[in-house]
Amino acid sequence: MKEITITTQKMAGAHAQGWQIWGWEIPVYLFLGGLTAGIIVVASWMILKNRGKEYPVATNKIMVLAPVLISLGMGALFLDLSHKLYVWRFYTTFQVTSVMSWGSWILVLVYPVTILLVLATFREGFPAVYGWVEERIKQIRDGRFLPWFKAVVDFAETRKNIFAKAGIPIGIGLGIYTGILLSAFAARPIWNSAILGPLFLVSGMSTGVALIALLSRDDERHYFARMDMGLIVVELFILFLFFIGQLTSGKAQQEAISLLLGGSIMTPVFWIFVFTLGLFLPLVFEWLEMKGRDIPAVLPPVMVLFGGLMLRFVLVKVCCLWRDMSIDQLLR
Known about the structure:
The chain is 73% helix and 0% strand. It has 13 helices and no strands. The longest helix is centred in the last third of the chain and has 33 residues, at 299-331. The chain starts with 12 loop residues before the first helix and ends with a helix.
């Protein structure tokens, strides 16, 4: 009879600590990426529908924030990178099976499309600012660059619908990518769900619409408040499917989702800040506003934006807690 000896090596404390998960930078990046995606999709749709007179903020003004927000998100992502000098290597190849490769190339498309849409809507959306910029350019080297500037703006304006048609799929791709970036990590049970892509897309759309409502007035604000109500309902339904999917999966998924169902400090954080303040109450307030109740105009959209940010923080942090729980079990 042969004796079989099985030797295992448990994680040492230092090695366990090296099993790192993302910090605050990634939730901020995911939030700003989703917010940018929502802005691009909604603004592009309004441009194609030629709704500039009815909804000036959504059609001609909000797009100016898209490149700014995505740049802030990229800045947060850059802070998280361990090897910052090698970012350029993402753009030396395209890996079909790599989520990060897809995301890198989507971001390459986001910048030119958003900048061209900003140029296409800038003159109509911000006539005073456009006039000021034109005057400043006129003073540079005797106005030598002014014809070039006008030519670029005219080029963007005459092809506005083409860029808007490109903006919709690019915005949708960016929104889905922010969720798939997490779901691609199969070793993290709570992230290993195909629902995260649609969830983050709808959440990004909701935050984008909320930002438009926050910056709008009167009829435009009411229109986008109603639109956000529909998006919140869809987001709640997708969250329900996410929980059902986790609870009916394997033991690892059930243990991970239990951290949001009474098993950790993240339970009250999720149900108070994400579900109640970020989804349920904004939905109630927007419904009451439709019924003629006097609700502070800034309250529902600010709560939706806060809830969208907290959703990303919770999903990243709960994975950290599950990791620590798994390491403790492994070291026993």
